[in-house]
């Protein structure tokens, strides 16, 4: 499938807002690839397809995962929207003809993250959070500047803010999200500053 065909199919699968977000993530992932000397086409393709399973109703997500032997965790049963990442990776390969396991992996981990992510995993995770259509997260302008300079520090900032948001909201938190934050936490610029401060005193 070429890019044009993928876009046409996605336009039918996604609602209008999700399609607009998808384009924002695609171009933002392309820009991050430029900044970090990564393959621009791969980054844009990952951005284009990352939410391809988002608009499937939750019961259908569960049914499709069962049918295709995609394991569902307890947290995913409680918050089935999380499944759009795993299911999206599966559909990218089977319905949209994506052959690259690197791209499919980035789609698979784009919601929770994962410890020790690849460059493309981080580009997609970050692009999803900072694309121009996003306006609700705190700290966005700082996160946007650091995204173009330091992917690991940016991951740490986003994960800290996401976990704060999720614990305020009171829903189940996927263990992977916590493990990812633990992995990237040492890269937090603010935390390192306070550690330096303590060493001085
Ligand atoms: O699909 P999008 O809305 O574009 O973005 P996404 O796939 O990153 O999903 C974002 C939502 O997922 C956001 O509200 C935070 C939430 N999320 C991230 N990690 C977890 C989580 N929700 C739960 N319940 N548990 C998590 O660990
Ligand atoms: Fe998503
Ligand atoms: Fe998204």
Number of helical stretches of at least 4 residues = 12
So what's the overall shape?
globular
What small-molecule ligands were found?
2'-deoxyguanosine-5'-diphosphate, fe (iii) ion
Summarize model confidence as the mean pLDDT: 94
Major β-sheet profile: none
End-to-end distance:
60 Å
Strand/helix succession = HHHHHHHHHHHH
CATH class of one domain, named Mainly Alpha
Number of strands: 0
Structural class of the helices, strands and pairings? Answer: mainly alpha
Topology:
Elements: H1 3-13, H2 16-35, H3 40-49, H4 58-67, H5 74-78, H6 83-94, H7 101-108, H8 119-130, H9 140-147, H10 151-169, H11 175-184, H12 189-200
Bound molecules: 2'-deoxyguanosine-5'-diphosphate and fe (iii) ion (2 copies).
Residues 50-51, 54, 84, 110-111 line the site of one fe (iii) ion.
For the structure shown, list the relevant keywords.
Hypothetical protein af1432, 201 residues, binds fe (iii) ion, 0% strand, binds 2'-deoxyguanosine-5'-diphosphate, mainly alpha, 12 helices, disordered C terminus
Give an overview of the whole structure.
- The protein has 201 residues and is an all-alpha fold.
- 68% of the residues lie in helices and 0% in strands.
- It has helices at residues 3-13, 16-35, 40-49, 58-67, 74-78, 83-94, 101-108, 119-130, 140-147, 151-169, 175-184, 189-200.
- α8 packs across α10 (151-169) and α10 (151-169) packs antiparallel against α11.
- The chain is globular and about 45 Å long.
- One fe (iii) ion binds at residues 50-51, 54, 84, 110-111.
């Amino acid at each position: 499938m070429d890019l044009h065909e993928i876009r046409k199919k996605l336009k039918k699968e996604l609602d209008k807002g999700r399609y607009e977000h998808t384009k924002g993530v695609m171009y933002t992932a392309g820009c991050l690839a430029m900044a970090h000397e990564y393959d621009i086409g791969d980054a844009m393709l990952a951005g284009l397809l990352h939410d391809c399973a988002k608009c499937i109703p939750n019961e259908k997500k569960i049914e499709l995962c069962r049918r295709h032997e995609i394991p569902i965790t307890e947290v995913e049963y409680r918050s089935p929207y999380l499944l759009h990442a795993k299911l999206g990776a599966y559909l990218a390969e089977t319905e949209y003809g994506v052959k690259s396991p690197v791209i499919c992996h980035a789609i698979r981990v784009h919601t929770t993250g994962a410890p020790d992510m690849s460059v493309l995993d981080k580009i997609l995770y970050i692009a999803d959070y900072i694309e121009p259509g996003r306006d609700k997260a705190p700290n966005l302008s700082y996160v946007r500047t650091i995204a173009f300079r330091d992917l690991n520090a940016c991951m740490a900032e986003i994960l800290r803010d996401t976990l704060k948001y999720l614990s305020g909201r009171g829903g189940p938190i996927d263990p992977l999200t916590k493990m990812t934050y633990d992995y990237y936490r040492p890269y937090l610029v603010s935390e390192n500053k306070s550690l330096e401060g303590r060493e001085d005193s």
